[in-house]
């Protein structure tokens, strides 16, 4: 696993996806809302609205969804959204957790795809159901219990991907703030590998550590960060998928920025 | 406050800022700050709550659009300001903007300005009325003089002014400084300050203290002598590279109005009256945006960039002196559409050019030195006064309210018609935010520092200002504005029932009596705070 990190593919570029679609060698998942999908989408794409997945993301249910989308163990999957890659990341991560290894994110958003004038249609494809296996990958998941023990270790870095203002207001003790906005560059949902490495190096997020990402509630922003870290070669990364919402509900300790009327500085 | 976070101050020489730069700042504020940015009183844009390790990423982004943070802080020549109306002001003799830009370029990275005793500031302006030249290290007003039948450009130069813990009004160096002496004079002054300025006592090492300690005559002499030396010894290649290429003024190609409807939104007339100025150039108007104590969100910045592209015929924005920004060369016919676009962006508030747009330094929101939340107080005053429609009152429009969170004057309270600086008050062991109020300050041709009147608790500031307005309305002469009336009072020339500021003080005193904490717990909370007030300061630098 470790020796593969430098070649691991995180995103699929627009041109490659187009040729894969022509070759019929890929399953494309559109994670936008059903209405948006029905209007138009990338040709051959199936629809899995994130909300649908989140209504029950237990492995058994996910397996059923995957089968119904015609994905078997070998099918290359590309996921896209219109929300800077965060929703797509959450879906991709879920597939990865189920044990599907060949899943990547479209390098840009659907709006960008359309702004390039690329093909789209409103056809819902006929899908033959498949049989995917289930080989869960618990090493990419952090639960609250896991996090609570892990964060006392020196070699664990906890990253909060919400906006800076949310972080200042309240966060999990010991977390560092890396807002999801820092991860993108211009038209791409993720910076180039070198840019990403530099950003992370500056912040002391380097290869030797185990990294856990979290965000507000369902692991979307931190899902994007999970892939950002992997793209920079930091493969020892876990997603705290239930994130800050669960942490607070469990009444675990939080921390806030003291002595700061910082909310005043944001123009209302 | 905290050492984990930094503030990045982005210089905008002469206040000029282009749409792509605004978009970049918008993006950087979302990535590395708190999704908002702050316009300062010195034509900088500041990003707060930046993690120190991210600063290099911000520098990278700024460089992409030709901006820098270099020498925006530290003991160097800080951002060179210029009046937002330079080039369009009906009262100016010529446009100082190219000279301000050239001065900024000359001193940036210049070895002579890297290690001064303390920071050093240049302000260029358009005319006496728009002022701000007598309260800065070097202030310059463009002037044209006839010499033997030929007209000559030059400046009126003021030295040694400045606002701070102790404020001084600048002195005019000589009657007329011809344009070719501008650089020599600037170098001479910087060199004298570098050589003789106090490098030990941090609290009083700005040049104004040097001028004050030495006496103006002696300092003036030194500058004139030093200038002769500079003139004689500088290499001929040392020149101020003033770019006289006129700006292209071209009405942007309009995207046809998608609504087609010609209904002008409500509030247009009020906004037109309080936010716009006619330019010298026929048919063009300069439009000032009302911000809340300089704050603007990332999405507003993004919208602003597009608005500048679509409405400013010079294709750029100009930062103002009062934590705001102006669009100039707006075609008069475009004003209603501009107003609707500003409404959509949340930037159409009225009152930018009136007393209802107070300055508030960052205060306890992000400054280690602040004692009170001056920033929030400025916003509270603005909201209340706009609600009372005081922006529409012609008697008040040329007055100003300026608030600092401590005596160091980042909020420029010393030159406000009604100024405040923060401190603490106490009843028994209970503390509350308290402001020292001064009146009669101004920064125009009659620059003077305000006179101290009395201490006003934070939660009484609004009623006290309203009371002053009421006293003024009762005693004014028909043509008086609040500013002109107060000017007479502080100078002892008023003949109504109010003869001096002591008479005003007597009327205000009943308003400032602190209640006990049981009677009014809210009194003991500063604005924007839900815990009882206490003073606490750390190490830091002011930042209005």
Task: Name the helicity range of chain B.
Answer: 25-40%
Tally of alpha and pi helices of chain B: 13
Instruction: Please summarize the sheet with the most strands of chain A.
Output: 5 strands, parallel
Architecture (CATH level 2) name of the largest domain in chain B: 2-Layer Sandwich
Low-confidence stretches of chain B: none
Global outline of chain B: globular
Tell me the CATH topology of the largest domain in chain A: Oxidized Rhodanese, domain 1
State the domain count of chain B: 3
The top-level CATH class of the largest domain in chain B is Alpha Beta
What is the CATH architecture term of the largest domain in chain A?
3-Layer(aba) Sandwich
Largest β sheet strand count, sense and barrel closure of chain B = 5 strands, antiparallel
CATH topology-level fold name of the largest domain in chain B:
Sulfite Reductase Hemoprotein, domain 1
Strand-pairing-aware structural class of chain B? alpha+beta
The chain pair forming the largest interface, with residue counts per chain, is: A-B, 25 and 35 residues
Alpha-carbon Rg of chain B, integer: 23 Å
Number of DSSP-assigned strands of chain A? 10
Considering the chains and any ligands shown, give keywords for the structure.
heterodimer, A: 268 residues, alpha/beta, Oxidized Rhodanese, domain 1, 2 domains, five-stranded parallel sheet, 11 helices, 34% helix, 13% strand, globular, disordered N terminus, disordered C terminus, B: 544 residues, alpha+beta, Sulfite Reductase Hemoprotein, domain 2, Sulfite Reductase Hemoprotein, domain 1, 3 domains, five-stranded antiparallel sheet, five-stranded mixed sheet
């Amino acid at each position: 696993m470790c020796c593969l990190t430098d070649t691991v593919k995180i995103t699929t570029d627009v041109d490659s996806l187009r040729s894969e679609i022509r070759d019929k060698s890929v399953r494309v998942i559109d994670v936008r809302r059903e209405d948006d999908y029905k209007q138009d989408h990338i040709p051959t794409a199936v629809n899995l609205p994130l909300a649908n997945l989140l209504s029950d993301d237990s492995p058994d249910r996910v397996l059923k969804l995957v089968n119904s989308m015609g994905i078997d163990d070998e099918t290359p999957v590309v996921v896209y959204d219109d929300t800077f890659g965060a929703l797509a990341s959450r879906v991709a991560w879920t597939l990865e957790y189920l044990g599907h290894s060949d899943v990547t994110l479209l390098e840009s958003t659907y709006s960008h795809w359309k702004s390039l004038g690329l093909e789209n249609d409103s056809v819902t494809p006929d899908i033959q159901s498949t049989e995917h296996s289930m080989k869960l990958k618990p090493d990419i998941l952090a639960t609250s219990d896991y996090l609570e023990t892990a964060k006392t270790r020196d070699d664990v870095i906890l990253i909060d991907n919400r906006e800076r203002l949310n972080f200042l207001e309240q966060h999990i003790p010991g977390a560092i703030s890396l807002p999801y906005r820092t991860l993108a560059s211009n038209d791409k949902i993720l910076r180039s590998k070198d840019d990403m490495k530099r950003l992370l190096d500056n912040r002391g997020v380097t290869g030797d550590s185990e990294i856990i990402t979290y965000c507000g509630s369902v692991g979307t922003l931190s899902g994007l960060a999970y892939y950002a870290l992997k793209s920079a070669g930091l493969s020892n990364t876990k997603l705290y998928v239930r994130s800050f919402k669960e942490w607070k509900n469990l009444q675990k300790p939080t921390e806030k920025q003291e002595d700061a009327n910082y909310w005043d500085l944001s123009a209302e | 406050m905290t050492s984990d976070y930094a503030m990045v101050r982005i210089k905008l020489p002469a206040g000029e800022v282009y749409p792509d730069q605004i978009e970049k700042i918008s993006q950087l504020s979302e990535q590395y700050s708190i999704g908002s940015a702050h316009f300062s009183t010195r034509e900088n844009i500041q990003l707060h709550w930046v993690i120190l390790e991210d600063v290099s990423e911000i520098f990278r982004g700024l460089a992409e659009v030709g901006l820098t943070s270099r020498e925006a802080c530290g003991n160097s020549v800080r951002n060179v300001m210029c009046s937002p109306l330079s080039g369009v002001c009906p009262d100016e003799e010529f446009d100082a903007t190219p000279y301000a830009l050239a001065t900024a370029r000359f001193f940036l990275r210049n070895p002579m300005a890297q290690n001064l005793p303390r920071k050093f500031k240049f302000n260029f302006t358009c005319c006496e009325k728009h002022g701000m030249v007598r309260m800065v290290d070097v202030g310059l007003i463009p002037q044209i003089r006839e010499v033997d039948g030929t007209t000559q450009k030059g400046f009126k130069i003021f030295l040694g002014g400045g606002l701070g813990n102790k404020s001084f009004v600048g002195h005019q160096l000589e009657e007329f400084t011809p344009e070719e002496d501008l650089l020599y004079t600037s170098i001479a002054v910087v060199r004298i300050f570098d050589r003789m300025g106090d490098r030990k006592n941090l609290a009083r090492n700005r040049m104004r203290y040097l001028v004050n300690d030495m006496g103006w005559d002696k300092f003036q002499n030194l500058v004139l002598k030093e200038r002769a030396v500079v003139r004689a010894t500088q290499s001929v290649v040392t020149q101020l590279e003033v770019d006289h290429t006129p700006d292209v003024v071209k009405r942007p190609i309009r995207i046809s109005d998608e609504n087609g409807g010609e209904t002008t939104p409500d509030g247009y007339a009020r906004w037109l009256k309080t936010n716009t100025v006619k330019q010298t150039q026929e048919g063009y108007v300069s439009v000032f945006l009302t911000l809340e104590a300089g704050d603007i969100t990332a999405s507003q910045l993004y919208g602003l960039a597009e608005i500048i592209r679509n409405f400013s015929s010079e294709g750029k924005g100009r930062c103002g002196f009062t934590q705001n920004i102006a669009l100039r060369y707006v075609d008069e016919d475009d004003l209603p559409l501009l107003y609707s676009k500003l409404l959509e962006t949340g930037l159409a508030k009225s009152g930018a050019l009136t007393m209802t747009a107070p300055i508030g330094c960052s205060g306890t929101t992000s400054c280690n030195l602040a004692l009170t939340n001056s920033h929030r107080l400025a916003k509270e005053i603005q909201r209340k006064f706009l609600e009372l429609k005081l922006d529409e009152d012609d008697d008040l429009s040329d007055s100003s309210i300026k608030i600092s969170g401590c005596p160091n004057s980042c909020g420029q309270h010393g030159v406000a018609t009604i100024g405040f600086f923060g401190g603490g008050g106490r009843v028994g062991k209970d503390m509350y935010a308290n402001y020292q109020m001064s009146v009669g300050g101004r920064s125009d041709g009659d620059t003077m520092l305000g006179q101290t009147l009395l201490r006003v608790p934070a939660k009484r500031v609004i009623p006290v200002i309203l009371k002053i307005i009421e006293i003024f309305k009762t005693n004014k002469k028909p043509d008086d504005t609040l500013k002109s009336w107060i000017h007479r009072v502080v100078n002892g020339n008023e003949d109504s029932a109010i003869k001096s500021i002591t008479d005003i003080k007597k009327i205000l005193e009943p308003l400032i009596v602190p209640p006990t904490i049981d009677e009014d717990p809210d009194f003991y909370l500063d604005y924007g705070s839900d815990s009882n007030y206490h003073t606490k300061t750390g190490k830091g630098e002011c930042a209005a």
